[in-house]
Design goal:
24% of the residues lie in helices and 26% in strands. By secondary structure, the chain is α/β, with parallel strands linked by helices. A hairpin with a 3-residue loop joins strand 14 and strand 15. The longest helix has 20 residues, at 286-305. The protein is elongated and about 65 Å long.
């Protein structure tokens, strides 16, 4: 007969690993199923300098420390698996993998994370973490006294561009349209900032450099004219995608396909909780994911006791 876990955590980013630490330390029989590399978005971050109590560290090192801490309390972790199906109804939840293995749990914590939308152009994968970033809060201070490019025209792009002027000497916003999609106050704040310049009706076509990003190629859409712009970094803010495609018919999602949770990280399905970049929230940081993973695990403990 298959072992029934107290909780099964789907995803091993900051939220999932934290939930694993708290659940297993509470003596709950805990399993983490992870489709990719352990660490989620942390692994893609070259340096993390704003995690409280931890001096500047590599993202993969922080992720590995969390993994080892969870395992030290007895949490089981199965990585590089592919989930075929979920059955989240009833008192015992079932998750089937594509290789045929089936796991059952009295509760589930969904932490599949998410991913920034990519431009999918030449050099983007090559320079991720080497000049290309998707988070000004995370990486802005690495570009102190440098020149950067911001891609996007929504609230996030303009607000983060303004935030980056705290560090950078020059911020160039590149946007595909002749107008912005942001709120008027965000537009005016960006336009009134002397450090910000605008390249409108244009799109990036490539990233180039020698080990580190050094320049971008830009196409002016009305004319098709190509130009190059020297830069120390590029921040891409064209949206965010939660990894919830397989959950659409199983659990309540909002219009942005984020999992809807309450303050206890409870979802619309009894015994199912969620945390991290997949849920409905404004800020996406390692620290917020850790907090939500903590709450989810504590809520699971309370749910199982009741």
């Amino acid at each position: 007969m298959n072992e029934i876990f107290d909780t099964i955590i789907v995803g091993a980013g900051a939220a999932g690993l934290t939930a694993g630490i708290y659940a297993s330390r509470a003596k709950l029989l805990t399993l983490i199923l992870n489709e990719g590399a352990v660490g989620g978005q942390m692994v893609l971050t070259e340096e993390i300098a704003n995690y409280p109590g931890v001096p500047t560290t590599k993202g993969y090192m922080l992720a590995n420390n969390m993994k080892m801490q969870a395992k030290s309390f007895g949490c089981k972790i199965k990585s590089n698996v592919k989930i075929k199906s979920y059955n989240l109804e009833g008192d015992v939840k079932t998750i089937e993998l594509e290789d045929g293995r089936v796991f059952q749990g009295k509760s589930v914590i969904l932490t599949p994370g998410g991913r920034p939308r990519s431009l999918n152009i030449e050099g983007e994968d090559q320079f991720k973490g080497k000049g290309i970033s998707y988070c000004a809060t995370c990486d802005g201070d690495f570009f102190t006294d440098k020149e950067v490019v911001v891609v996007g025209g929504g609230n996030s792009a303009l607000e983060e561009a303004v935030a980056l002027t705290t560090f950078a000497t020059k911020v160039t916003i590149v946007h595909q349209f002749d107008h912005f999609q942001a709120f008027e106050h965000a537009i005016q704040e960006a336009k009134n900032n002397p450090k910000i310049e605008f390249v409108m009706e244009s799109e990036l076509r490539g990233f180039y450099g020698n080990g580190q990003l050094q320049k971008v190629k830009i196409e002016h859409l009305p004319t098709g004219k190509m130009s190059e712009l020297s830069t120390d970094g590029t921040f891409i803010f064209i949206g965010y995608q939660p990894n919830t495609e397989d959950l659409a018919d199983l659990i309540e999602l909002n219009m942005r396909n984020e999992i809807v949770v309450d303050s206890d990280m409870k979802t619309s399905v009894k015994g199912v909780f969620a945390a991290g970049d997949c849920i409905n929230k404004k800020y996406r940081q390692v620290t917020t994911a850790v907090a939500e993973g903590t709450i989810a695990a504590l809520s699971v403990s309370e749910y199982l006791r009741s």
